[in-house]
Design a protein that fits this description.
This protein is of the alpha+beta class. Helices cover 29% and strands 34% of the residues. It has five helices and eight strands. The protein has an eight-stranded mixed beta sheet, with helices on both faces.
Length: 185
């Protein structure tokens, strides 16, 4: 990573939503957010254990993401409105050297959809990936029927580059995904 200042990775989004690096102290608010959005997220995510939706489960999840951040292989963000978590953005699988690439994953609280928050958050991550992280490319994948997520990516300058059969196990089944990329520089 080319920055030592986590504040360079934080910012303001529309509607009073903030984006900042995930912290260990976010476990309770993130567990509550996942519980509120459990049904909303179920069709788009891997099958989750009951533990995942608890403060303890989120504490373990956050610990893994912070270890990834410490190793320089990922950057986890949380979206906050007031004192509540309303989504996450994650760059994972950061590869340095000649590749300088990462994978983007994200979700936004169902009550905040349609307000431009996802688009603004992805744009923020793209900016941070280019400037603070020095990456060349970001890749993202969506289910073929997830038109909303595809629009978010396209607004942020991502282009569809392919179709991956049985790419990820989502909602209990191996599902095809559309692949997108954004070349940063």
């Amino acid at each position: 990573m080319t920055t030592d200042a986590p504040s360079a990775l934080a910012g303001e989004l529309p509607g009073g939503v903030r984006i900042r690096l995930l912290r260990g102290s976010d476990a309770e608010r993130l567990g509550a957010a996942y519980r509120r959005n459990r049904d909303h997220l179920a069709p788009w995510e891997p099958t989750r254990s009951a533990e995942f939706f608890t403060t303890e489960g989120q504490s373990a999840n956050i610990g893994g993401k912070l270890a990834m951040f410490g190793a320089g292989t990922g950057v986890p963000w949380v979206l906050l409105a007031g004192g509540e978590a309303v989504g996450t953005m994650t760059l994972s699988g950061i590869v340095r050297g000649p590749f300088l690439s990462a994978n983007l994953g994200y979700w936004v609280d169902q009550d905040f959809n349609g307000r431009g928050i996802g688009s603004a958050a992805v744009a923020h991550v793209v900016g941070a990936a280019s400037t603070a992280l020095g990456l060349h490319r970001i890749q993202a994948a969506t289910l073929p029927h997830n038109a909303a997520s595809q629009r978010v990516l396209q607004r942020a300058g991502f282009q569809q580059i392919g179709h991956a059969p049985e790419y990820l196990q989502i909602a209990g089944a191996w599902q095809d995904h559309l692949l997108f990329q954004r070349v940063l520089h």
